[in-house]
Design goal:
The protein is mainly alpha-helical. It is globular, with a radius of gyration of 19 Å. The protein starts with a helix and ends in a 7-residue tail after the last helix.
């Protein structure tokens, strides 16, 4: 559905972003209405869960589409481009070396995370994501891309 909206050659870019927002909001509202008698449960992949995640995905897609394609704010493009061009690579690296990446983040940021208490896990998570991004950026600069 999102692809159909985005590929419409007749509609203006701002109209496409608006349609994505309306669709996303409608899906979220339907999910919340259904959740009153059919709960949102991720583990069971209930219909309201599917609708909610689809709605949030539409809203995020509309946000990024609006920022990048409508307003032409290109400052964040490199950040997402680095991730997007090697998304399979980072997925496989995390699956294969998952614990060692967490340990690397803990090694470099443990001194900062330990005194922070509950906020320490946020620091370690952001550090892990930063480490993964830097790895992907290195691959991006070397033009190394894993393709399927």
């Amino acid at each position: 559905m999102a692809g159909t909206i985005l590929r419409d050659g007749k509609a203006a870019n701002s109209r496409k972003a608006g349609l994505l927002v309306i669709t996303g909001a409608a899906l979220v509202i339907v999910a919340l209405l259904l959740s009153t008698f059919y709960p949102i449960i991720k583990a069971m992949w209930t219909v309201p869960f599917d609708l909610l995640t689809a709605g949030v995905s539409f809203l995020l897609l509309s946000l990024f589409y609006y920022i990048i394609d409508v307003k032409k704010w290109r400052g964040w493009v490199l950040f997402f481009q680095v991730i997007g061009l090697n998304s399979i690579t980072i997925y496989m690296v995390v699956r294969i070396f998952g614990m060692s990446l967490a340990n690397i983040s803990k090694f470099f940021l443990g001194w900062l995370a330990n005194p922070a208490g509950d906020f320490g896990m946020v620091i370690l998570t952001i550090g892990g994501i930063a480490f993964e991004w830097l790895l992907l950026y290195y691959l991006y600069k070397k033009k190394i891309f894993l393709r399927v």
